[in-house]
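Database export, one record per block. Field names are fixed; values are copied verbatim from the stored entry.
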Amino acid sequence: MQGHRAKITKITVHPFYNLVATASEDASIRLWDFEQGEHERTLKSHAGMVTFLDFNSNGNILASCATDLVIKLWNLETFTVQKTLQGHEHEVSGLSFVPNSDFLLSCSRDQSIKFWDTMSGFCLLTLTHGHSDWIRRISVSHSGRLFASASKDESIVIWNCE
């Protein structure tokens, strides 16, 4: 499967369908039918390199983040941006949906982790302690009770969501 005009930064597989989403330095997201090996659709709305992607548990929303400091929530029925989440002060480097909920976690080069309500689009909580450098990735446990963050400061922090 080829089609991006720059390096691919992330790939994620849909939880139910034969669909894979790819993010790229070309500021686009491409959706592919991985069984047929065919390009299905290109999503464009970011003004910078798309750094990370994640599908929600239901598979009806794709979240993307980028060097343009924002997170986009894509409606996969209409293939349009449902919401744009703004609040990080530097590039957003990672994100992860909390399983079976309407919440999303994001991390950034601004050394913060944000907890978002995807229904309202509001940031509910910002964590600024725990790391002393760029937070590169974040991952939520299957139960949604714990999450981990990894930083350029060479540390991993395990957080309790409860």
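Remark 1: The chain has one domain: 8-160.
Remark 2: Residues 30 and 42 are 4 Å apart (CA to CA).
End of record.
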